[in-house]
Amino acid sequence: PLANAISIRSNFACDSKSMLLGLSNGHLQVVSWNAEFSDSFKLRCSACSPDKTAAVVDALVFDPPSLRGNSNARPAPCCTGDFAIVHVELSVKLRLLVAVYSDCQVALCTVGKKGLKQTSGIRVDRWLNTGDAMCTSVASEQQILAVGCSRGVVELYDLAENARHIRTLSLFDWGYSVEDTGPVTCISWTPDNCAFAVGWKFRGLTVWSVSGCRLMCTFRQAGSNSALSPMVKPNAQKFEPLMGGTSHIQWDDYGYKLFAVEESLSERVLAFSFAKCCLNRGLSSTTYTRQILYGEDRILLVQPDDTDELKILHLNVPVSYSSQNWPVLHVVASDDGMYLAVAGSRGLVLYDLRNKRWRFFGDVTQEQKIQCKGLLWLGKIVIVCNYVESSNTYELLFFPRYHLDHSSLLYRKPLLGRPIVMDVFQDYILVTYSPFDVHIFHVMISGELSPTSSPVLQLSTVRELSIMSPKSPPVSMRLIPEPTDEGVLKRDTNESSNLSSQQPSRCLILRVNGELSVLDMDDGHEQALTNSVELFWVVGSQEEEKSNLIKEVSWLDYGHQGMQVWYPSHGANPFRQEDFLQLDPELEFDREVYPLGLLPNVGAVVGVSQRTSFSTAEFPCFEPSPKAQTILHCLLRHLLQRDKHEEALRLANLSAEKPHFSHCLEWLLFTVFEADISR
Question: Where do the RIC1 C-terminal alpha solenoid region domain residues begin and end (predicted)?
Answer without folding.
Answer: 633-677
